[in-house]
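ok so I'm stuck.
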Amino acid sequence: MKKVWLFVVLAAVPAAYGQANLKNPSALKERAPAVYKVKFDTSAGVFEMEVHADWASNGADGFYNLVKNGYYDGCRFFRVVPGFMVQFGINGDPATQRNWVDATIPDEPVKQGNARGFIFAKSAAPNSRTTQVFINFKDNSFLNRQGFSPFGRVIGGMEVVDKVYSGYGEQPEQGRIQAEGNTYLTKAFPKLDYIKKATIEQ
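replied:
not stuck anymore, here's the structure
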């Protein structure tokens, strides 16, 4: 019995460590490997991303730290526009999310086009990247001219991304997600697919 309890305690340490780090964005400044992979275990199935630091180093570093510390675990795919893209990255815990609202990432030149399966993180305003991530359902080259700089791509399981639940479209309100988290989403939009666990795989 003692061995079992010891295992449980030790297994809980990494999760607790990640949760503590998510309270302080300025502490998450680890440089990402030149190339790394991320496995997403979701309610729709499993898919895998490959991230390239030389495409957009700031984006790759930020994403690496967020995944490594468990930020995306439990996040809903809250905006799904068929024929365009799927969006995620607002943390399900409002207290955690508040820490990241102003943790922006500087813009970078577009080195890779916004093709199907490519991943980017940006909004329309300059230097406004935070934690939110988009995956292109198709080639969206018009985003290149607007400065949307991909940092990675889906290399396996794109069929899983394609089947993420899209019935709610753009109905979920981002302001309410920020304020109420998954409590709002699970009550108002119970069919949303979500990330069970995101894991760095080098």
